[in-house]
Amino acid sequence: MEAGEEMERILKKRQVLMFFVLLGIAQAGSTLRRYSVEEEAENGFFVANLLKDLGLEVEELTARRPRVISKGKKLNLEFSMQTGDLLLREKLDREELCGPAEPCVVPFQVLLGNPLQIFQAELQIRDINDHSPVFLDKEIILKISEMTASGTTFLIERAQDLDVGSNSLQTYTISPNFYFHLKLQDSPDGTVLPQLVLDKMLDREEQSEIRLILTAIDGGNPPRSGTALVLIEVLDINDNAPTFSKFQYEVQVPENNPVGSQVAVVSARDLDIGDYGQIAYAFSQASEDIRKTFRMNATSGEILLAKTLDFESIQTYTVYVQAIDGGGLSGSSVVFVQVMDLNDNPPELTMSTLNNHIPENSPETVIAVFSVADSDSGDNGKIVCSIQEDLPFILKPSVENFYTLMTSTALDRENRSQYNITLTITDLGTPRLTTQHTITVQVSDVNDNAPSFTQTSYTLFVQENNSPALHIGTISATDSDSGSNALITYSLLPTHDPQLALSSLISINADNGQLFALRALDYEALQTFEFRVGATDQGSPALSSQALVRVLVLDANDNAPFVLYPLQNASAPCTELLPRAAEPGYLVTKVVAVDRDSGQNAWLSFQLLKATEPGLFTVRAHNGEVRTSRLLSERDAPKHRLLLLVKDNGDPPSSASVTLQVLVERAHEDDLLTLYLVIALASVSSLFLLSVLLFVGVRLCRRARETSMGGCSVPEGHFPGHLVDVSGVGTLSHSYQYEVCLTGDSGTTDFKFLKPIMPNFLLQSSERENDTNASYRNSFEFS
C-alpha cells in the first residue's frame, strides 16, 4: 500500500514537471494550419507548399529533414525534399476516415530536426458525390386495413447515403398512384424520413395489393438515386394500434459485454384481441451498423448483442423499434444505448524519429521523438510516460502527446558504450495498463583519449657488434578509444643532441613499435644513448604521447690487449740489462699493456710462455713485472730471450705476445764504463769551453748563423688516446709516462731511458735496481 502511494506521488511530481515543460515547448507549435483536398484524389496529388508556413528555404530542407506524421497513420502523405510540396501517397476515402462526421478534418504534424520543431496542421477531406442512396430493404411491406381513414400516415424505412452535406440524401419520390402521396419529415438527427399518407380509403375487395416505387435522391451534381419496392397489403379492419410503455428507453452497456447478452427489453400492448392483438417487435429505420450490432426478439421485445461493443469506435447507439399487431397497425419507440468505457486498451507508442547511434561528449542530443495515445476515455485514457532513473537521459513532453528522449549529460563511451532505455507508458485506469518499448543506444567513439605507453621509460640492452637490423626491443601503447581512434602509429621523435645521428642508429616499426638497430654498435665509441618515441592515434584530430627509450650498449671482448712497453714495432726485440750480482726477485723490467674493452674483458693477466732459462725468470700475473727467481751463476748464458703472453679475462679470451731480450752484465765492463765516463766528461768540458769561445767570436763578428748545434728534445704529454684505457680500469694509468731523449748525431741512434714519470708507489720498489744499472743502460746501443 505504501509503495503504491509512493509511486503515485512520484508520478504526480513528474506530471507537474512535464506540464511546465509542455507550456514552454508548445509555444513553437501553437499555430494550427488547415489544408483541404477532395476525397478520391489521385496518388501524387498536390495538397499545398509548406515552405512559407514552415518558415524554411529549399536549401534548408536537407538539414532539417522534415517528416509528416499522422496519429494512427490515417493519412499517407509525402513531403517533397526538392520543392517543399505536400503530396498524397494514396487515395483518401472521406467516409472511411470520418464516417458521417462533417467537416472531415484529420490532424497531422510535420517534424523538423536540427533543431527539433513540431509543426501542427490538419487536412480537411472534402466530400464528393461518390455514393448513391441505398435502401437496406429492397422490398418494404406495409399491411394497411381497409378501414384506415384517409390522412393516416405510414412511416417507411429510410434510405442510407454515406455522403454528407449537399451530397447526402435530400428527398424522396413515389411512383404515381390513386391512394397515397409522399410526405417528408425531418428527424432529430437531421435526416429526412419518408412517410406515406393515405389519400382515400382502401378496398380490399377491389384491390388487395398495391405496389409502389420509392425513390431516394441525393443533392449531388449530377444527383444519384436509389429505389425500393413498397408492397402494401390491404387487411381487414383493425382499430387499435400497439402502444409502447415508454416513449424512449435509455440503457448503459459495458463495452466488454459478451455477444448474446441482453441490452434492453421493450414492451408494448394492443387493446385488440385475437390476431389484431398479437404484437411483433422489429427494428425501425435501422442502419446497417445497428442491424450488425443488435438483434431483436420479435416475440419478447428483448434486444440482444450481435457483436462486441467498442467504446473507442462508437460511444452511443440510437435504436428505433416498432411494435406491429396482426392487423398491420404499429407503434414506435426509441432506445438510446450508451456504451460504457472500460480500460481495455493499453497505451500505444508511435516512434517518429530514432537516432540510436550518438557520439560521446555530446550533451542534450536528441535520441528519439515519439507520440503516445490511449483510445480509452477519462482516466483510462490519461497517460504517464517514464524511463529508468539511473540513466543519463531525460524525457521532455511536447505538443499533442509528443515526447523527446535526449541525453541529460555528456556520455563517455570508455565508461559505457551501450544503454538499453525502456520507455514505460502507463494509463491511469483501473486496472492500470502498461506498454513498454526498449531502445538500444550505441555510444559512438570520439577521439578523446591519447595513446598511453605501458611504461614512461624503457631501458634496452644491446650487445656490441650486433648484426644490422637486429630487433632490440618493443615499445607498446594502448588507446581507450575504439576503431580508427584506437589505431596507433609509432615514430621516432627528433633528438636534441646534434652529435647523435639517431636515424642511422635506430628504426621503428610504425605498426607494432618494434625497435631495430640499423648498424653494428661499438661499445668503445658509444656506451649509451637516449631518444624519445611517439605514439599517435588515427583520430581527427590525432592525439599522441611520448616515452623515453634508453639504450645501453654491452661490451664484447672484441679488442686484444695492446702492449705499451716494451714497444713491439721496432726491428729488434727490446733488450734489458741484468747485473750478474742481482739478487732473487730483482726487477728486470715491467710489461705495460692496456685493453680498450671494459669490465672483466679488460682484466689483464701476464704469463711467461718461453724462456732460454726456464727457471731463471718469473712474471707477476697481475702487474707484468719480470723478476729473477734465483741468483745468476757462471754457467748461465749471457743473453736470454723471453716470450710473454698478455691475456684478458673475456669469453673467449684475447691475447697478445711480447718478446724480451735480457743481457747479463760482466765485471770488467764496469771499469771500462768508468773510463768512458771520465773521457766523456772531459770531452763535454772541452766542448763547453769551445762553445763559449765561439759564441763570443760570433757576437764580435756578427756572424750569428755560421755555426749550428744539435739538441736534445724531450717529448711531453700522454700516449696517444688509442693506447689509453677509456674506462680507467686498464693496466696502465694516464699518468704513467717516460721521458725520452734522442741525440741529433747522424752516426748512431741512442735510445736513452731517463727518469720515468710515474706514481711514487710504482717507483719505490724498483728505485734501487734502476740506480745501479743506470750508467750501463744509458750507453747500451740497439742495432
Automatic annotation (TrEMBL):
Principal location listed in the UniProt entry: membrane
Keyword terms: Calcium, Cell adhesion, Glycoprotein, Membrane, Repeat, Signal, Transmembrane, Transmembrane helix
One annotated Gene Ontology cellular component of this protein: plasma membrane
Listed CDD domains: Cadherin_repeat (cd11304)
Membrane-spanning ranges: 673-696
SMART domains to which the protein is assigned, alphabetical: CA (SM00112)
Localization (cell): Membrane
Pfam family, one: Cadherin
SUPFAM superfamilies listed in its UniProt record: Cadherin-like
Topological type in the membrane: Single-pass membrane protein
Cadherin domain location: 136-244, 245-349, 350-453, 454-563, 578-676
GO annotation (BP), single: homophilic cell adhesion via plasma membrane adhesion molecules
GO molecular function: calcium ion binding
InterPro entries: Cadherin-like_dom, Cadherin-like_sf, Cadherin_C, Cadherin_CS, Cadherin_N, Protocadherin/Cadherin-CA
The organism's place on the tree of life at top rank: Eukaryota
Annotated Gene3D superfamilies: Cadherins
Protein name (database record): Protocadherin beta 2
Provenance organism: Cricetulus griseus (Chinese hamster)
Lineage: Eukaryota, Metazoa, Chordata, Craniata, Vertebrata
